[in-house]
Amino acid sequence: MTDVTGATAEVLHTLFHSDQGGHEQVVLCQDRASGLKAVIAIHSTALGPALGGTRFYPYASEAEAVADALNLARGMSYKNAMAGLGHGGGKAVIIGDPERVKTEELLLAYGRFVASLGGRYVTACDVGTYVADMDVVARECRWTTGRSPENGGAGDSSVLTAFGVYQGMRASAEHLWGDPSLRGRKVGVAGVGKVGHHLVGHLLEEGAEVVITDVREESVRRILERHPSVTAVADTDALIRTEGLDVYAPCALGGVLNDDTVPVLTARVVCGAANNQLAHPGVEKDLADRGILYAPDYVVNAGGVIQVADELHGFDFERCKAKASKIYDTTLAIFARAKTDGIPPAAAADRIAEQRMADARGR
Q1: Of 191, 277, 287, 340, whose CB neighbour count within 10 A is largest?
Q2: Are residues 278 and 257 in contact, defined by beta-carbon separation less than 8 angstroms?
């Protein structure tokens, strides 16, 4: 079922001809008083209510926003399935520059739209939204997680997101080099914001050599001031070409593994927090053909969703951390399945997730 109000022909085409397909519901939200324009996409509720964050981003068009919501929602279905959660996949995007148009009134209006879905979709933080924003949304919607401890929530989920990526990276090292230690390995982190700066901390504690980049100069400066041993390069292009790079960790926006970047990537492993790192189908094979081990993004970055899901039932950090630590085992299992089936790890992860959703539908 798709709810469409005032959609342009371009948006309609995106909804009904998306190559992602299979979504249960897409809602276009508009509140003229606050200026809210948002898209809520529910991909699957086979495993339970759809759970996924709210991205606040200045999309170039409504169709681009719809396409991103569809893609992200599908990714959440697979992520939640692989994390062993009782949730399906959904995602919301709010159109606009959060630095300019985000207001309390707009967030409250968004909360009312989420609430109108009656629990089919549970929202949380994503790019451009924060714990304080979820506190506001929760005033209008009880199906909100990722809230502050003061308001009954678990707080910042980026801590466990980074921890999960770190576990996926250790599993990648074990699979490729026979040792999970990252000591002495050169790791390039693209994006040192909410998740990336925590990941840098884990890597340095283990004795890795870390190279970073970020479009925000203040984010780079913060890392360099706190960790003088870290090296910074100008941009992502410089990072992926860095000589002697062992691991590349994309921790910003998606689509970074594409026809331009894969041929020049020097790292032997790609393992990062960014969602939807593969720009299009076929990139996973290009990585495999070059002998680059890809740890599927929605598997290794599941620490955050593990935390926000746990918040719905009474948050316990140690319980969540123990569950996030299992990302190490899950990642190794995916690599083993990929070897057995003779397919790239991304395809192996998809097969496992799809089977879990299909089994749930058949119950």
Answers
A1: 277
A2: yes
pLDDT digits (tens, 9 = 90+) for 27-55: 999 999 999 999 999 999 999 999 999 99
Domains of the chain (ranges plus CATH)?
2-77+88-151 (3.40.50.10860), 158-305+311-315+331-357 (3.40.50.720)
Binding residues for NAD(+): 191-196
Taking only Cα atoms into account, the Rg of the chain, rounded to an integer number of angstroms, comes to 20
Q: Is the dihedral of CA 223, 224, 225, 226 positive or negative?
A: positive
Annotated binding site: 191-196
Whole-structure pTM value? 0.86
Buried b (16+ CB within 10 A) or exposed e, 82-114: bbebebbbbbbbbbbebeebbeeebbbbbbebb
Angle at 53 between CA 169 and CA 319, to 5 degrees: 55
Residue 246 CB-density burial (10 A; 0-12 exposed, 13-18 middle, 19+ buried)? buried
Q: Which residues are catalytic?
A: 91
Query: Which amino acid belongs to residue 283?
Result: V
What is the per-residue DSSP string for 85-102? -S-EEEEEEEES-HHHH-
Q: Which residues make Cβ contacts (< 8 Å) with residue 38, sequence separation at least 6?
A: 28, 29, 30, 92, 93, 94, 95, 110, 113
According to DSSP, residue 274 is labeled: -
pLDDT one-digit tens code per residue, 192-231: 998 999 999 999 999 999 999 999 999 999 999 999 999 9
